[in-house]
Amino acid sequence: MSTATVQITTKDTKDTKLRLRWISFVSIVPCVSIAVIQLIGPTFLLAAAAPFAAEQTWTGQISDSACGAKHEEAAEGAGKMPDPECTKACVRGGSKYVLVVGGKQVIQIANQDNKDLVNYAGQTVKVIGEMKGNAITVSKIESGS
Predict the structure, then answer these.
(1) pTM score, two decimals?
(2) pLDDT of res. 12
(3) What percent of the chain is modeled with pLDDT above 90?
(4) In a 10 Å sphere around its CB, with 0-12 CB exposed, 13-18 middle and 19+ buried, how is residue 60 labelled?
(5) Where are the domains of the chain?
(6) Dihedral of the CA atoms 60, 103, 56, 134 (nearest 10)?
(7) Which pLDDT tens digit goes with each residue over 32-55?
(8) What whole-number distance in Å separates Cα of residue 60 and Cα of residue 38?
(9) Sequence-ordered list of residues with C-beta below 8 angstroms from that of 100, at least 6 positions apart, any chain
(10) What residue spans of 27-101 are helical by DSSP H?
(11) Parallel, antiparallel, or unpaired for β 135-143 and 105-109?
(12) Residue 67, φ and ψ in degrees, nearest 5
């Protein structure tokens, strides 16, 4: 935690001092700073949090955590299912939806209850949302190119 203190002396009769401290919690919560203003004498607190990470856009395929980037034959000799059917079957079996970017990178999806996931299962899409930790919280899914 880093702290910087600035003292400003006002020109009133009581010569009140104002201390301003910026405390960054980078190791705890990225992109959040809190400003603390403290008057010597009567004390008050003002906290303002900077906005969290802005929405981003990823292009990739909605897949499932069991298959990831590669859907394969479900059973020997049964043939390979189309990606949408395979993804839906794996999710019914307990897998989670994921986004596969660039054919290799598998990114978890935090809000598995997003109604568009089943509609776009196995398809190439544009996902709009925020990366929180190692998972995307999806706000919108659009048909990909």
Answers:
(1) 0.62
(2) 47
(3) 54
(4) buried
(5) 2-39, 56-70+80-143
(6) 120
(7) 444 444 444 444 434 344 455 689
(8) 49
(9) 60, 61, 63, 68, 69, 106, 107
(10) 83-92
(11) parallel
(12) -90, -35
